[in-house]
Amino acid sequence: MKRIRVKQVRSKIRRPQDQKRTLEALGLRKMNQVVEHDATPTILGMVNKVKHLISVEEVK
Question: Could you tell me the pLDDT band of residue 21, with boundaries at 50, 70 and 90?
Fold first, then answer.
């Protein structure tokens, strides 16, 4: 299964509560924090919801 690396690049301050919770569910609690996840449909849906706050790259 493919893996993706997700990094928070923008702040969650002044964002809707659902976007804050999505970042928390992805494991992102601070700016510039990086986490790795399997590229499942659930994770990709969460990534799509907060794509303006994060950067995503594929892990090789």
Answer: very high
